[in-house]
Amino acid sequence: MEVENLYFPTLRPRRLRGSETLRRMVRENLLTVDDLIYPMFVIYGEEVANPISSMPGVCQYSVDKLLPAVGEVVELGIPAIILFGIPDVKDEKGSGAYAADGIVQEAIRAIKKEYPDLLVITDVCLCEFTSHGHCGIVHEGDVLNDPTLEFLARTALSHVEAGADMVAPSDMMDGRVRAIREKLDDNGYSKIPIMAYSAKYSSAFYGPFREAAESAPQFGDRRSYQMDPPNSDEAIKETLLDIEEGADIVMVKPALAYMDIIRRLKDEFTYPVAAYNVSGEYSMIKAAAEKGWIDEQAVVMEMLTGMKRAGADLILTYFAKDAAKWLKDR
Length: 330
Hints:
Layout: H1 20-26, E1 36-43, E2 49-51, E3 59-61, H2 63-75, E4 80-86, H3 103-114, E5 119-124, E6 137-139, E7 142-144, H4 146-162, E8 166-169, H5 176-186, E9 195-200, H6 207-213, H7 233-245, E10 249-253, H8 259-268, E11 273-277, H9 279-290, H10 296-310, E12 314-317, H11 320-329
Parallel strand pairs: 1-3, 1-4, 1-12, 4-5, 5-8, 9-10, 10-11, 11-12
Antiparallel strand pairs: 2-3, 6-7
Organism: Metallumcola ferriviriculae
Family: Belongs to the ALAD family.
Keywords: Heme biosynthesis, Lyase, Magnesium, Metal-binding, Porphyrin biosynthesis, Zinc
């Protein structure tokens, strides 16, 4: 943009920064509680609220303890949660993921009965439920793509049958959005949206989550199916494929080190973009705040606003409850 013959002292950008009222009026990006999705972990048992040691303030809840915790989310005005389940028994095919009486399915029914207006999203993957900890069917050490698709589709359908409002496949198998879309449509659930983990990187920021979800792989790693962190153009390809297969919302995970990817997806596509502010990002800030090295509230709000500025329409974050309280105070 060219502005002729207007220089200092005529041009003074500071004029619009002189008061909080004026700064609010010209603010370009605004974080609100409606942008937030709170991740929650559910586990079998009764009266269980297991603190996650690497994620202060986050717990694994049994269903009876989950409901009051969900009530707090609703009270704060947070519109949605995403559920992760930890089964009591794991096997090679992750059968607990798609069992009608699985832990996620039980939690969905309980939540929707108590809080019918809360949007319940479910993570669709097998890693928490498989004995080997990988996101698909394994044969001779290889994670098989095509045989995994039916199990993912069955998992998504079982969640929706239990009352889930949206499903979010996170496995990064090729073709899984199409498989899920067809399974839902064939069973009368064409109105259920899919939020695809479209650009999910093989990241070092997931460490604390693996404690929370008890999902660390028992051998190898996930680099053969999650994206290689140096890649950017690949995110465009992955996201385009998900959109063509029927995704309604696309996601970038992690968020903090991949804001350029959030921006690229937002610029490239007209679809809503979600950003997952992952466990490692959460834990780093919590650890530094506990040491007194940073102002937790200021840093969190700046970070989340940065994700919004990068192009995120939705932010999945373990800071959702704190952010909702801070936004209300403001």
